[in-house]
Every structure is written in C-alpha cells, then in structure tokens.
Amino acid sequence: MIKLTVLGSGTCVPSLKRNAPGYLLEAGGLQALVDCGSGTLLQLEKAGRSYKEIDAVFITHRHPDHFADLIPLVQALLATPNYKREKDLFIIAPEGFREYYNMTVESLLSGAALDFVRIVEIYNNLDLASFQISTVKTVHSEDSIAYRFEHNGKVIVFTGDADYDQGVIDLSKNTDLLIIDCSFPDGMKVKGHLCARECGLIAEKAGAKKLLLSHIYPADSPDIERVIESGNAFGGEIILAEDLMELEV
Ligand SMILES: [Zn+2]
Ligand SMILES: [Zn+2]
Questions:
Q1: In angstroms, what is the span from residue 61 Cα to ligand 2's centroid?
Q2: Whole-number Cα distances in Å, 90 to 53, 58, 75, 118, 126
C-alpha cells in the first residue's frame, strides 16, 4: 500500500486554497516528499506530519514553485533547538540539480555542516528503500521529469509539469494512480502544460486506474469542470485534487 497526501494542489500563483506543489508519499516505512514548493513545510504540519521524519525529497524540475521550500527544510533540520539530524536526507532531482543546489540552498546556509544531505541526480532508474523509481523527460522545461514509483506491486506516477507526449503515456502504463499537471481547462491551453482533456487522453492511453487532477491554475471556469472535460477522454475514476486530501493505492 502507498499512501499519498496532497500538500499543495496549486501552482506559483499564491492561493489560500491551493498551496504550491508538494505531495507526501508514505510506504514501507519511507516518508518522501514529491516536490516541495513554498509553503510545503507548513502544509506538512497541517497534515499532522513532521519535517523531521522526511527521508527523501524528489524534485521534478528547478522551477521555484516546485522546490523553494527545500531551503527552509534544510535550515529547520540544521537549526531546530535540541535536535540533531541523524539520518540522511536524500534529495533526488534531475541532472544538473547538484550545481543548482549549491548555488541556492547551500550558499544560503554556508558554513553549516550539511553532511546529512545526499544529492542524487537521477537519470533513468533508481531503487530507494522498497521503491523502484523510474523517470522520463517531460515537455516543459530544460530539466523537467516525471516520476513513477512502484512499491509491492502498486504504482503511482507524478507527471510534474508536462505537456502532452508519448513519454508520459509510456511511463504511466497501468498505473494505479496518475497525478497529473492539469494546469488549465481546455479553453485556456498553453504550451508546456496539459489541459483537462489531454489529461484524460493520457490516462486513457496509459490504462491508468485513477486520475488525480492537480497543479490547478486559477481559471475563468470552476475547477470542477476539468473533471468533466478530462472525462470526455477517460472512462476511469477522476478526482480533483484538494490540499490535504489523502489517497491510498
Ligand atoms: Zn509548476
Ligand atoms: Zn514548471
């Protein structure tokens, strides 16, 4: 069983309802964040979890709305009174992230011993604890990737930020849960992000069991209409993500 908590179903646009992207994955004793946009640490507190327990952070790409809270996370692990971080914190990210991390997080926290941080640049596949993880490049930014997590036969896929392409469909084959960039309703499609119908099409072609629409930009139409629009292309279950929603597969 894999447990997912949506910490942020929103984007870079500040919103009291939809925090910047962040998700908590829990399975087999591992607690991992997938993306860590601004506000993720507070959302984690609201979800009744602790930043101290996080084993790994998976970053989909370098846009700040997806990783900005890495800085307060590492700072909190360094500076919480009467607390010493004993276990490693794995930061798994696309190629080139180590240099970026050094320029941002490490340079801001200079002088502090960061010996618990393990940066891993992921190319294709990786095993971490009882998870088998694979990735694919997405059509969005220079470094953007999607992640597939498998644990005891259960599969969750995160597209990160993505446009429509075959790579995301292939990575999502037969997934139990597909967490997808549903930035816009069909009438507001922009390049580099998916609109609702495309989300449904990817889920349908991949044979996904359940589709979670997330990364919701504000739009002219009510968010729930995206469920109808993606349902025009996908016959399976579709859920509109909400912050602090919990799902299990
Ligand atoms: Zn984004
Ligand atoms: Zn982005």
A1: 7
A2: 12, 8, 15, 5, 12
Closest CA to 211 of 178, 234, 176, 163: 178
State the distance from the centre of ligand 1 to the C-alpha of 82, rounded, in angstroms: 35
Name the nearest CA neighbour of 179 among 163, 164, 191, 161: 161
2-47 pLDDT, tens per residue?
999 999 999 999 999 999 999 999 999 999 999 999 999 999 999 9
**Predicted TM-score of the model (pTM):** 0.97
* DSSP class per residue in 139-150: SSSTT-EEEEEE
Distance of CA 62 from the midpoint of ligand 2 (Å): 7
Taking the centre of ligand 1 as the mean of its atom positions, its distance from the CA of residue 54, in whole angstroms, is: 22
Ligand number, closest to the Cα atom of 141: 2
